[in-house]
Amino acid sequence: MPKLSKRLEILASLVPFGARVCDIGTDHGYLSIELKKHGAVEKMIATDINEKPLERAKKNIEKAQVRGIELRLCDGLSGILPQEVDTVIIAGMGGEVISGILENGKEVARCGEISFILQPTTSPDYLRRYLFENGYTIESETPLCENGKLYSVMLCKFSGIKEKYEEYCCYIGGITSETRDGYLYIKKQYDRCFKCGEALKNIPEKQSEYNSYKAIADKLYIALNKNPKE
Question: DSSP labels for the chain?
């Protein structure tokens, strides 16, 4: 099995020792293999919505000679019972898709006993907004830069309390500029909002949208320059 990527290493590091884990959308199964291989988890379920990724994962599991990984063909959390797991990993998908998985599986997701490790590849702002508005608490966020791409890994849990938030928080969550990857992550979001605002600046009928983007960009600029580490 190839060495885990930095992204998968961070995901694995957030899994508590002895956890009962479900890896949603396991794909090649590398993360599940790593967690079970080193005895870090009590139970390991790897799921996917398609048969081919599960076949690929099965071959990798057999090649690694790892036992105790259960493969399931199911859509999101639909094939999982809340009492089976205490940690769910949903990574390598868009923010809208991850939000949809949580929403469609809310009978499981909102039982209050499960920790979620989430890593959106796109639209992290969409995912954070969903979490804020649907009673999830983001306990930590880890920014990382890998192969020229910036990601955030979120650790969260359903509390049932809808948090008050400012719009700019949807773009960076709890990420700070104190690390190089954190600085780069915030800068990317700042550049994005600043450019969107500038494109609307001289369009009279778009002034409301311009003001919104400008307000977000201003907040991100402050966060970017607070204890920055380039």
Answer: -PPPPHHHHHHHHTSPTTEEEEEET-TT-HHHHHHHHTT-EEEEEEEESSHHHHHHHHHHHHHHT---EEEEE-STTTT--GGG-SEEEEEEE-HHHHHHHHHHTHHHHTTS--EEEEEESS-HHHHHHHHHHTTEEEEEEEEEEETTEEEEEEEEEE-S------TTHHHHTT--TTSHHHHHHHHHHHHHHHHHHHHHTT-GGGHHHHHHHHHHHHHHHHHHTSS---
pLDDT tens-digit readout, 43-93: 999 999 999 999 999 999 999 999 999 999 999 999 999 899 999 999 999
Strand 19-24 relative to strand 115-120: parallel, antiparallel, unpaired? unpaired
Q: Are strands 87-93 and 136-146 parallel, antiparallel or unpaired?
A: unpaired
180-200 and 207-224 helices cross at what angle (nearest 10)? 160
Tokens encoding 123: 């639209």
Give how far Cα 87 sits from Cα of 5, 43, 49, 111, 114, Å: 21, 10, 19, 12, 5
Q: What is the pLDDT of residue 112?
A: 81
Contact 66, 37 (CB under 8 A): yes
Mean pLDDT of the chain: 94
Question: How many C-beta neighbours within 10 Å does residue 212 have?
Answer: 15
One-letter amino acid for residue 186 of the chain: I
Q: What is the pLDDT of residues 205-230, one digit of tens each?
A: 999 999 999 999 999 999 999 876 65
